[in-house]
Request: fold
Amino acid sequence: TGASAIAAADAGLKGADVTLLELRLSDGLAGKGVCFFTGTVSAVEIAVELASAAVSPGHFLHAVVIPQLSPEIAATLHTSSIFSQNLQK
Reply:
């Protein structure tokens, strides 16, 4: 859920030396939320572990740590969700 994504992002940021690249909430995600961390691989792995532990069982669906993200995928991730676009207005 969006609330779980906020809790996960908060835990990851407080417990690891990472930066929150983006937090996407609910809109266009069927009520789910997604957070993107950036930092060293080990720091991101710690953030993901803390994030998964911070949410209720069954609310953390999946995590992927990508050591070297291709420029094409990075450009796709920078395309904001509808929710994010509305906040910027």
Observations:
- The domain at 2-87 is CATH 3.30.70.1710 (Alpha-Beta Plaits).
- The mean pLDDT is 81.
- The radius of gyration is 13 Å.
- The helical segments are 2-15, 41-54, 71-77, 82-87.
